[in-house]
Amino acid sequence: MKRSLLILLAALALGAALFAGAYFAAHRASELCCARPADDLNWLQLEFHLSNAELARIRELHEGYLPQCAERCARIAEKKRELDALLGSGTNATGVPVKQAEIAALRAECQSNMLAHFVAVSQAMPPAQGDRYLAEMKKFTLGAHEKIEQSMSGDCVHEHPH
Amino acid sequence: MNIEDSKLSGWLRESRATPTLPPRFQENVWRRIEAATAPEKSGNWLDALAALILRPRLAFAGVALLLLTGTLLGAQSGVQTARHEAQLRYVAAVAHEFTDRQ
Questions:
Q1: B98 interface with A at CB cutoff 8 Å
Q2: Structural domain boundaries in chain B
Q3: What is the pTM of this model?
């Protein structure tokens, strides 16, 4: 009986090792095979079943949007550095709200341009795919902030009950 | 043995109490004897399973099944991971100021 138990345990260990080896090797291989870091738009074409013509139109929109986005991000980064400098010096406290308002305005501008880009891209897709694309982008970009805001407002209700 | 002795023996026999046996006494005794002499059941099925595993055909089939299942599940999971990473890359490219990665 002890011998049988040993055989069973050895078989189980060997089976687990074989399964895990095959799983991780295949996982790594397909991950490397499917990853195409050269082009950000490959995912769009695969996920939303786009034709080459639709992808070409979206690529045009994408390449037009990216430099504007980069420029706005650079401006936001610059304002953040200025805000950090103000907070670090501790002398000009009145300048802090002004700088925060400037950052908020730039972010709002950036966000409205981003949403306009999403809408333009979704309109270049077949309607059903366009709706799905918009929902996905909203989840990734605005959804995260909504969750934080909801959790924060929940905390405020607990702290300051009316 | 005189008459007195035989009388005494008779009285002694009569006075000895004979307890009544519980119901199904004999059946229960036999059942306990059988249980005590029977080999352990767990040993039996372990031996049978070990013998089954050691059969070459079954062993090869088991190894093939495990390798195939592992490969298929791993490939599927790898494709999903790659797609998710591609999605994150796209989102980071178009909206990095508004994603969790900032």
A1: yes
A2: 23-95
A3: 0.61
